[in-house]
From TrEMBL:
Family (UniProt): Belongs to the relA/spoT family.
Matching SUPFAM superfamilies: ACT-like, HD-domain/PDEase-like, Nucleotidyltransferase, TGS-like
Known function: In eubacteria ppGpp (guanosine 3'-diphosphate 5'-diphosphate) is a mediator of the stringent response that coordinates a variety of cellular activities in response to changes in nutritional abundance.
Protein name according to UniProt: Bifunctional (P)ppGpp synthetase/guanosine-3',5'-bis(Diphosphate) 3'-pyrophosphohydrolase
Location of the TGS domain: 392-453
Domain of life: Bacteria
GO molecular function (one): GTP diphosphokinase activity
Gene Ontology cellular component list: plasma membrane
UniProt entry keywords in alphabetical sequence: Hydrolase
The ACT domain, residue ranges: 635-711
Length: 713
């Protein structure tokens, strides 16, 4: 191809191409290489090498994955638009529209990469996702590009090394894992680990090297025993010992608080056979050779991982009690395990049908696009994505037997959203393995899950504290934001109307003309945003009312009476009941506009709102609507004798009076050792309902004293 120090790299690259492309395609790639070499002439990398060595290395990685000529051409030219005078139009004329689009997609990703802020990184990832959705080859080229940059990161400044390594660990390694590039995923993790924690990396690498020598004899012995057993079973198999990659050993040490000497299974063994029946026959033969460790067997052939990975995993008791991890797979599965999506590339095939791995990847991309459309900003989107890239998965069944893959720690709510957004939105309970279970139940592989829905039920803000998938989290947040905005607008309207009545009792509705004038004068986007701000306590209704009346030419009258706002308790997110005094219908109440929280209802005698630092202008006159019609929380303190079954007796009485127990807390009653202090949080309809509950509790012989808790601080 050409003389000079890069001669070997160039000839190796073209040797790889000749192994699977025809001569015409190789000639096209030769032209692309020469074009790139001329375009980058005079440019050098930080390491001092000619710049063309980088695109060549990226294309060479893609050639190992047997990617198509368009992707290889784009890899060779991926920096020319960004770093040289060459235009997209020129590329299109010389190499075709598909190549020009791929290069353009990659160039757009590069433009923002130099910024280190979280927001910029998030925006970069969002752009990458949209580019991937157009053509998945963009991410494969991008990952090959990142892999070569990580391999040559030593020439960079330490600060830049750390930033690039962190981004690689957070985003690129998990994406490589998610699309099944297992070998790349492990190498990216190890390289990131090396630059993020250089000292730990060196110490661990040294320890593994020493252990390798000490354990070589043991590994050879196990390897020989496995090969002999499979031969006896008349199975054709390739057996190899493999060392776990450094970062996975480090993670295990961290998660399980182990020293290196305690991590016994730094070696695993891989058995590659001809077909699926042979996988199970090999498993049986190995279980007869060494006893399997219970609970350590996973069948990823029957239930493949979300990224298409298939294998049988088993852990055995080896010689001297050493645990041995063994993976058993067919050669086709091995190809998928190492190269994932790239190993199934189908751009050369005439039919547009997608294989299983590509279908899974497209589904994953579609899910990310759904999350992207609902996330308010790029940083929030990135948070969802990081959740969604978790590598560990649990596999659960729908009532119809469909298998769903969810991240470790996923709950019944995550399952509900995975089935369908509407099921997640309206879920109220779950049946796990035919038994009713709370929605926060964490699922385990093999669980059969059925969701109970109610058309009148909606997401609860508390769900955000335990859901594990990006999809569930983004849908819940989106719903809460939409609902809170709508409810805040309605509450803001009521508060503004009340304030207008104070200043001008006979005043009707504010005209559109006055609204337009007021919004324009105050630089506000629209009426709904202003009303939502009032409802959320970000603006005072009195100030807005005064401004609107003055815009209308009406002099505000200070002497009018304030009409109270009726409170029903159904106002949800725009209204809260104070946790310091737990007001219930029948109590005298007052509202307080708390910035960002909206209207908070307190009892009129609550010490919190009578503090000297409370702004009295933010107090709002409220009253209970006669048809409140829901249950309200209230605290009850009980001193009871320390007898067996006392809690059950009290709970039974509360339940008989149609009251629910939300929370219960027991502690010793210091004044009298034979008595217990029990603090209940119960739900009642109103004061009369509470009085009935208290009356029945007083009648219990075990109850010494009880009272409603007045101040909960």
């Amino acid at each position: 191809m050409q003389g000079g120090p890069m001669d070997k790299d160039v000839s190796d690259f073209f040797d790889k191409l000749a192994a699977y492309l025809d001569s015409e395609e190789v000639a096209q790639l030769d032209a692309a290489y020469r074009f790139g070499e001329v375009a980058h002439e005079g440019q050098f990398r930080k390491s001092g090498e000619p710049y063309i060595s980088h695109p060549l290395a990226v294309a060479s990685i893609l050639a190992d994955w047997r990617m198509d000529p368009q992707a290889l051409t784009a890899a060779l030219l991926h920096d020319v638009v960004e770093d040289t005078p060459v235009t997209k139009q020129e590329l299109q004329e010389l190499f075709g529209k598909a190549v020009a689009d791929l290069v353009d997609g990659l160039s757009k990703l590069e433009r923002i990469e130099l910024q280190s802020q979280e927001e910029a990184q998030a925006e970069n990832f969002r752009k990458m996702l949209l580019a991937m959705a157009r053509d998945i080859r963009i991410i494969l080229i991008k990952i090959a590009d990142r892999l070569h940059n990580m391999r040559t990161l030593g020439a960079m400044h330490p600060d830049k090394q750390k930033r690039i390594a962190r981004e690689t660990m957070d985003i690129y390694a998990p994406i490589a894992n998610r699309i099944g590039l297992n070998a790349v995923y492990q190498e990216l993790e190890d390289l990131s680990f090396r630059y993020l924690h250089p000292n730990r990396y060196q110490v661990l690498a040294k320890a593994v090297k020493a252990a390798r020598g000490n354990r070589r004899q043991l590994v050879d012995k196990i390897l020989g025993a496995i090969q002999q057993r499979l031969q006896d079973a008349r199975l054709q198999a390739q057996v190899s010992g493999r060392e776990k990659h450094l970062y996975s050993i480090y993670k295990k040490m961290q998660e399980k608080h182990l020293s290196f000497s305690e991590v016994l299974d730094i070696y695993g063994f891989r058995v590659i056979v001809n077909d699926i029946p042979s996988c199970y026959l090999a498993l049986g033969a190995l279980h007869a050779l060494y006893k399997p460790i219970p609970g350590k067997f996973k069948d990823y052939i029957a239930i493949a991982k979300a990224n298409g990975y298939q294998s049988l995993h088993t852990t055995l008791f080896g010689p001297y009690g050493t645990p041995i991890e063994v993976q058993i797979r067919s050669s086709e599965m091995h190809q998928t395990a190492e190269d994932g999506l790239a190993s199934h590339w189908m751009y050369k095939s005439a039919e547009g049908n997608l294989n299983d791995v590509q279908q899974r990847t497209h589904k994953w991309l579609q899910r990310l696009l759904d999350i992207q459309s609902e996330s308010g900003d790029a940083a929030e989107f990135l948070e969802h994505i990081k959740v969604d890239l978790f590598p560990d998965e649990v596999y659960v069944f729908t009532p119809k037997g469909r298998i769903l893959a969810l991240p470790q720690g996923a709950t019944a709510i995550d399952f509900a959203y995975a089935v369908h957004t509407d099921i997640g939105t309206h879920c109220v309970a779950a049946r796990v393995n035919f038994e009713l279970a709370p929605l926060r139940t964490r699922l385990r592989s093999g669980d059969r899950v059925e969701i109970v829905t109610d058309p009148n039920a909606y997401p609860n803000p508390s769900w955000l504290s335990f859901v594990a998938t990006g999809k569930a989290r983004s849908h819940i947040r989106h719903y809460l934001k939409t609902m809170q905005f709508g409810e805040s607008v309605r509450l803001g309207e009521r508060l503004l109307q009340q304030a207008l009545q104070v200043f001008s009792p006979r005043h009707g509705a504010v005209s559109d003309h006055v609204w337009e004038h007021y919004l324009r004068e105050n630089g506000l986007p629209d009426k709904a945003d202003l009303l939502a701000d009032i409802g959320l306590g970000k603006r005072l209704s009195m100030v807005v009312a005064r401004g609107l009346l003055m815009a209308e030419g009406i002099e505000p009258n200070e002497a009018s009476n304030l009409s109270a706002i009726p409170i029903r308790g159904w106002e949800n997110m725009a209204l809260q009941f104070a946790k310091c005094c737990y007001p219930i219908p029948g109590d005298n109440i007052v509202g307080f506009i708390n910035k960002g929280q909206g209207l908070v209802i307190h009892t009129a005698d609550c010490p919190v709102i009578h503090r000297s630092d409370v702004d009295q202008d933010k107090l709002v006159d409220v009253e209970w609507d006669p048809v409140a019609g829901r249950l309200f929380e209230v605290g009850v303190d009980i001193i009871a004798s320390n007898d067996r079954g006392v809690l059950a007796q009290i709970a039974a009485v509360i339940s008989e009076q149609n009251s629910n127990i939300v929370n219960v807390h027991l502690e010793e009653f210091e004044e009298r050792p034979n008595f217990t202090s029990i603090r209940f949080l119960i739900q009642v309809e109103h004061r009369q309902h509470l009085a009935t509950v208290l009356r029945h509790l007083r009648a219990l012989p075990v109850v010494e004293r009880l009272q409603r808790r007045r101040n909960h601080h």
